[in-house]
Design goal:
- There is one protein chain.
- The chain contains 14 helices and 12 strands.
- It is of the alpha/beta class and about 350 residues long.
- It has 3 domains: about 50 residues, lambda repressor-like DNA-binding domains (434 Repressor (Amino-terminal Domain), Orthogonal Bundle); about 130 residues, 3-Layer(aba) Sandwich (Rossmann fold); about 130 residues, 3-Layer(aba) Sandwich (Rossmann fold).
- The strands form 2 sheets. Strands 2-1-3-4-5-11 form a 6-stranded parallel sheet, sandwiched between helices. A 6-stranded mixed sheet has the order 7-6-8-9-10-12, sandwiched between helices.
- Helix 8 links the parallel strand 3 and strand 4.
- Helix 2 crosses helix 3.
- The protein is elongated and about 80 Å long.
């Protein structure tokens, strides 16, 4: 029968668990570290002994045995110049997209018993610290959101012998695992929706010029319009923010007041466009139909709610988590994996 926890306050040890379970210390260690091929009856006996003694595995000791800390990093990286009054973290905290990434990763890591840490890599010093943490084993791997193609971080990570998975495709020439969306197909779905609604004076609010995803969405939108017989359209770049969408919509109307359909490459920009259209006396969707992209909280908060291209961000982030925590296979450890999700159109009131 298992011995109760020592009332004197002594921290229970592996030996205490082994004695309570009637097995060897080595067997307890194998069970606690999830080593395969342990008799299920012995595993259950050890589990009961752990509960009875109040034993808590020492993470540092476990790291010595497994070579892993049980910690993965979510790295948000960018190199774009910013106004000193608009620090990098403000965009992260304001954009619902990033919260959805955290939610998806957290769920996958929780199932694997892994802790999530958040790292901003917006400077050379921050990148150097991240590389040091990964090389030294203070962190087992990283999920990386790299916002601009000139970002040096993916190239620095590509040569490390640690698990790294990008949210989005890596720069050309880099062999790295990634999870992405078929952004081009998403843009095509937006064009198809506007054309099916009878819109012919259409325009787009694209992402920043450096954004690979934004370029793909605009290219898909152009292809969708061309398939419907429309070759030309006005394109105003935005910055994936609410204010950026408002400003871009103002510029679009200045160029062509007869615009009757707009595709914005993010829901925040689409919501900003809807706000400016309403302030300008246009009815949405009667006068101007608006389609967004993401299907996050901004889509349902908009008035009217946005018709949008759904990006299953939580599912994509969870897939990154599964790739990072999958058991290592020596035969495939240096191979890269890519998973591309399909977008879908969510129809609401704006188009």
């Amino acid at each position: 029968m298992a011995e109760p926890h020592d009332p004197a306050g002594r921290r229970p040890t592996l030996e205490d668990v082994a004695r309570a379970a009637g097995v060897s210390r080595a067997t307890v260690s194998r069970v606690i570290n999830n080593v395969r091929n342990v008799d299920p009856r012995i595993s259950r006996a050890v589990a009961r002994a752990v509960a009875a003694t109040g034993y808590v595995p020492n993470q540092a000791a476990r790291s010595l045995v497994t070579g892993r800390t049980g910690t993965m990093a979510l790295v948000i990286s960018e190199v774009a110049d910013r106004d000193p009054g608009d620090p990098f973290t403000s965009q992260f905290l304001a954009d619902p997209f990033f919260g959805r990434v955290v939610a998806g990763l957290s769920g996958a890591f929780r199932e694997a018993g892994v802790r999530l840490t958040l790292t901003f890599a917006e400077s050379d010093e921050a990148r150097d610290q991240l590389l040091a943490d990964l090389r030294s084993g203070r962190c087992d791997g990283a999920a990386v959101i790299s916002l601009y193609p000139l970002d040096p971080l993916p190239g620095l990570l590509a040569d490390l012998n640690v698990p790294v998975v990008l949210f989005g495709r890596p720069p050309e020439g880099l062999a790295m695992s990634y999870v992405d969306l078929d952004n081009r197909e998403g843009g095509r779905l937006a064009a198809e929706r506007l054309l099916n609604e009878g819109r012919r004076r259409v325009a787009t609010i694209s992402g920043p010029p450096q954004s690979v995803a934004g370029k793909e969405r605009t290219a898909g939108f152009a292809a969708g319009l061309a398939a419907g017989g429309i070759e030309g359209f006005i394109d105003e770049p935005g910055d994936f923010t609410l204010g950026g969408g408002e400003a871009a919509m103002e510029r679009l109307l200045a160029q062509d007041p007869t615009i009757d359909g707009v595709f914005a490459a993010s829901d925040l920009m689409a919501a900003g466009a809807v706000g400016f259209l309403k302030d300008s006396g246009r009815r949405v969707p009667d006068d101007v139909a608006v389609v967004g992209f993401d299907d996050g909280s901004a889509a349902t908060a908009s008035r009217p709610p946005l018709t949008t291209v759904r990006q299953p961000v939580e599912d994509m982030a969870a897939e990154i988590g599964r790739l990072l925590t999958a058991p290592a296979d020596p035969a495939t450890s240096r191979r890269t994996t890519s998973v591309v999700f399909a977008p879908s159109l969510v129809v609401r009131a704006s188009a």
